[in-house]
Amino acid sequence: MQNPRIQQLAKLLEETGHAHHKSFISTDGADPEWALWYASHRQIPLSELLNREFTQSLIVYELVRLDRTAESGAPWPEVYAMELLTKYS
Question: How many structural domains are present in the chain?
Answer without folding.
Answer: 1
